[in-house]
Structure formats: C-alpha cells, structure tokens
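Structure (tokenized):
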C-alpha cells in the first residue's frame, strides 16, 4: 500500500479540502478521488464547490499523479 494525498483545489489553485489515503495503486486512488469528490458535491451542495476546480491525487513526494476535474464529475452526476 502506498500513501497518497487527495487535494481539492478551487479555480485559483487554493486547497479547499484534503485527505490522506492508502491505496494499492494510482487507479484505486483515482477511483477514491472520484467518490470523494461526488460525496463532497452532494454534501456541500453543487453551488459551494467551484465547478472549475479539480481534485489531484498526489504521491508521497507531493507530485500529482492523477487529476479529476469538478466539471467532469458534475456532468456525470446530471
């Protein structure tokens, strides 16, 4: 298991939310990022999350290894 950080950024690049995650692979971490972003959008309301924001999956060195855009998740939820 590797350690990842899920970081939600708004349009300006400011971190809005973050969470540590242990996952066996990047694809599993990306799937968790999708679920986390959907959960945040449902709980906080779509109007409170910047639709131009993104959630990055960062490795243990802080390098982005995957990215999910909020607009893509909003589109799939509609």
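Design, position by position:
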């Amino acid at each position: 298991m590797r350690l990842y950080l899920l970081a939600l950024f708004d349009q300006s690049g400011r971190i809005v939310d973050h969470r540590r995650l242990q996952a066996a692979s990047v694809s599993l971490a990306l799937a968790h990022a999708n679920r986390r972003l959907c959960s945040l959008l449902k709980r906080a309301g779509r109007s409170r999350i910047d639709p131009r924001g993104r959630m990055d999956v960062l490795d243990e060195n802080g390098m982005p290894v995957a990215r999910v855009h909020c607009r893509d998740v909003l589109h799939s939820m509609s």
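Reviewer-requested clarification: Residues 56 and 67 are 4 Å apart (CA to CA). Strands lie at 2-9, 15-23, 54-58, 64-69.
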